[in-house]
Each structure stands twice: as C-alpha cells, then as structure tokens.
Amino acid sequence: AYLVFPHGNVVNRFIGAVSDLSNLGYGVTGGIFNVSNDIIPHKLSARLGAAAAFSNVIPPRGTATAPIDNFIGWETNARLVYQLGVFMSLEVHAAYMWLGNYYNSPRVNGDSPTKPLNPFTTFLAFRWLMF
Q1: pLDDT tens by residue, 57-66
Q2: Alpha-carbon distance 72 to 51, whole Å?
Q3: Which of 23, 52, 61, 104 is the right S-S partner for 66, CB 3.0 to 4.6 Å?
C-alpha cells in the first residue's frame, strides 16, 4: 500500500492514512492484496494492488450531516518496474485512496470540520543497491 499505510520508498511522504500502529490509539485492522506478473521475465514487471483499513474504535464528535464510522478507506495502486541491471531498477508507482467516514471526525482531522479530499500519489524511483 502507498497511502493507507506508510510506504518506505517515498522520502517526503512517509505518513499514511494510518500514521502509526496504534492509529491515534483507536487501533487498526487492515489488509493488502497484490497481484504481479513478469511481462518480460527478469526485465519488466507489473503489479496491481489494493488495501483497506478499519479503525477498531469509532472516533467521537460526529454530526448528523457528517456521520462517522470506523472505515478509514481503501486504495488501489500500481507499479511498473524495469530492471536496468543487477540490483538496479527504474520504477513508476501510482495510487489513489477513497477516504471513509472515519475522516468526518474533527478529532481525526485536527479539528477541521470537513473531510479532506481523497489523496493520490505518483512517483518515479531509481533503485540501486551498491556494495
């Protein structure tokens, strides 16, 4: 997952929708599903994924116009990797997340009265493991 849970390949966005294991003390239950395939064996690979998360506790301070539940959200993501050499790859990543009604709570949003917009990300990564 890229947006529901923190992703280690992104330098300036290591925070996900679930920012820590305790999820602000509310607990978290989630899952990740990925399917991948080598388009060109050992050279070009693709992966499609999905992730979802639920809070174990419904946060307080909901309103009738903005009901709150424990669904944090779900995302879809994709990755395309081209292997340039041994331990060297060029990667393209993308993800989109649909936020749940968990974010209608001002307690979760830093006292903002409105739910944030659905987040998305795209990035290019060059990986090279040097010894």
Answers
A1: 988 876 656 6
A2: 11
A3: 104
